[in-house]
Amino acid sequence: MAAAPPMEKYQRKLDKALRKLHSAEANDDAEDMLSLRMKVEKYERKLKQLSTKPDHKDEVVDKSGMSLLLFYAYVEPAWTPVRHKETLHWAEDLLNSLGVTGRLRVSREGFNGTLTGPYDGIRAFTDAMRERDNGYFAHMNNQDDFKITDNLPEGQAFPKLKVFAVTELVNYGLGVDNAPSVNKGGVHLEPKDYHKKLLEVRPSTVMNIA
């Protein structure tokens, strides 16, 4: 039996990961959602690499199907409770007006979104995000920060929109006031040093980020 073409292979993997992500979102399983989002992003990157075409100014953009948007957007300092509530209502009203569905967590530290919608609706939302809070998110682009995958089957869209308040975007149990600064990252290790750290008797906190 002949192997499936690479595009078809990764599309199937993406479809499967999306179905599992929908289920994890419905069950509010934060741990599964995090790992599945990483898988979805991995397969999206692979599909984009395989489908990259030369840039033609007159090329017609294919807006068929639905678009998927995955993103985190942190703010520092954290919003006040009043600003948090205002932002929650702003996002919900805007997404409803654009025909976008899915789940958007809004905490005082920012946004965590898994959204589906029309090509133009998704981009209208990311454009509005870049203008929000006097351009605080203006640096975020539609490739690396707002991760968008287009032309997916309509049936993979979330059936409805849920925008809701949470204490933390990712549940570490620290709370907004005790969370470390998003501007203080860790130290990158080369593979050899990474494995040395894992073998320490009292190892440091080591994370493998693909």
From TrEMBL:
Keywords: Coiled coil
Coiled-coil annotated spans: 7-53
Domain tRNA uridine(34) hydroxylase N-terminal: 67-165
InterPro entries per record: TrhO, TRHO_N
Pfam families linked to this entry: UPF0176_N (PF17773)
Transmembrane domains' residue ranges: none
Record-linked PANTHER family: RHODANESE DOMAIN-CONTAINING PROTEIN, THIOSULFATE SULFURTRANSFERASE/RHODANESE-LIKE DOMAIN-CONTAINING PROTEIN 2
Protein name: tRNA uridine(34) hydroxylase N-terminal domain-containing protein
Organism: Aphanomyces invadans
